[in-house]
TrEMBL record:
Annotated source species: Enterobacter lignolyticus (strain SCF1)
GO biological process: rRNA base methylation
UniProt-recorded name of the protein: 23S rRNA (uracil(747)-C(5))-methyltransferase RlmC
EC number annotated for this UniProt entry: 2.1.1.189
Designated gene of the protein: rlmC
Keyword match Iron-sulfur: yes
InterPro entries: 23SrRNA_MeTrfase_RlmC, Methyltranfer_dom, MeTrfase_TrmA_AS, MeTrfase_TrmA_CS, SAM-dependent_MTases_sf, U5_MeTrfase_fam
Residues that hold S-adenosyl-L-methionine according to the record: Q212, F241, E262, N307
Length: 376
């Protein structure tokens, strides 16, 4: 992938960009194999990759500069801004939206937040695109509600220019720290969720709910989990750290009982909406802490699927699973180091199969799916 920002030394986020993707995959596979070298693997499946560029469905843009000439991108470590509106990781449709948002910021009088001076209102713009129909969700992250009415007044012009904006909201983040969003979300449109669909499974994206940023590879990840799970003799499963329910909704059948647990209520609302559309009545989604939920149960189901954040599932949940002995564990991880530590804490399980998913090209990061089987 060619990137003018990288060539000019203005951005180094894609640290592996000079390596061919085939070489990147080899390096990632080597890293994963080294991490699991003390944990024998029955089957290594070929890694899955997707497009080299234009693959991201989400942009998180720091807003800097002036109200007349805003910059959308990032702040370097020394505090100087860099405009990333032409980053090749974003699909072409994003550039057109950014081009309209810049004059809109001036129309609405949304002064970019100045970190050094602690002044201004507009901190971030968060843009998400649906692969289903090209619809988009736009979120303005503001320091306060001081400019909210000005934003509302200017909004019709923006919606006329960009009819693809299906969901528009304001997030209030008053803290002077590098925190992306606050707790308060104010919707400026009637629609509060963006429709998406992977593998024929309806999914919904709401503000403050996690959703995979590489739809092509995520589609393969969910389909693989579905195929693995449906090949197992199980009728009851837990989907822990379930997010919007992507894994559980793919794996579930009318004959299966499924419990999905996720701490974010917004994500659970999405999962429930999808389950209703699919007509699956044996699915139960709850907004709870996954570890607290699991260790509070007297027994585990035949299958537990976990998709934790980078820290992994941790010692307490590993101890519970090893003791309660579900027949199978499917572990989806965005941090193979923490996954390897967790699996080492499950001495009564063996690794049946592993597959790497290159969700983050041009970086050292990757996703991995692992099937663990209880030793008899």
């Amino acid at each position: 992938m060619q990137c003018a920002l990288y060539d000019a030394g203005r951005c180094r986020s894609c640290q592996w960009i000079e390596q061919p993707v085939s070489q990147q995959l080899l390096a990632k596979m080597s890293d994963l194999q080294a991490l699991l070298s003390d944990l024998p693997v029955q089957e290594w499946h070929a890694p899955v990759s997707g497009p080299e560029q234009g693959f991201r469905n989400k942009a998180k843009m720091v807003v800097s500069g002036s109200v007349e000439k805003p910059l959308l991108g990032m702040l370097r470590r020394d505090g100087t801004p860099e405009d990333l509106t032409h980053c090749p990781l974003y699909p072409p449709a994003f550039a057109a939206v950014f081009a309209v948002l810049k004059p809109f910021i001036a129309r609405a009088g949304l002064t970019p937040y100045n970190v050094a001076r602690r002044r201004g209102e507009l901190k971030y713009l968060l843009l998400t695109e649906s692969q289903l129909d090209g619809g988009m969700m736009l979120r303005f992250v503001l320091r306060s509600t001081g400019k909210l009415e000005q934003l509302r007044a200017a909004l019709p012009w923006l919606q006329q220019q960009l009819p693809q904006l299906k969901v528009i909201s304001v997030n209030i983040q008053p803290v002077h720290m590098a925190i992306m969003e606050g707790d308060e979300e104010i919707f400026l449109t009637g629609a509060q969720a963006l429709a998406e669909n992977f593998n024929g499974v309806p999914l919904w994206i709401r503000p403050q709910s996690f959703f995979q940023t590489n739809p092509t590879v995520a589609t393969s990840l969910y389909a693989t989990a579905r195929d693995w799970v449906r090949g197992l003799p199980v009728t009851h499963m837990w989907d822990l750290f379930c997010g919007v329910g992507g894994f559980g909704l793919h794996c579930a059948t009318p004959a299966m009982t499924l419990t999905g647990i996720e701490i974010a209520p917004e994500a659970i609302a999405c999962a429930k909406q999808s389950a209703a559309e699919l007509g699956l009545t044996n699915l139960r989604f709850q907004a709870l802490d996954s570890t607290q939920f699991a260790v509070g149960q007297g027994e585990a189901p035949g299958l537990v699927l976990v998709n934790p954040p980078r820290r992994g599932i941790g010692e307490a949940l590993c101890a519970y699973l090893d003791r309660m002995a579900p027949d199978y564990i499917v572990y989806s991880s965005c941090n193979a180091q923490s996954m390897a530590k967790d699996i080492a804490r499950l001495p009564h399980y063996r690794i049946e199969r592993v597959q790497l998913f290159d969700m983050f090209p041009h970086t050292a990061h990757y996703e991995v799916l692992t099937l663990l089987v209880r030793e008899r």
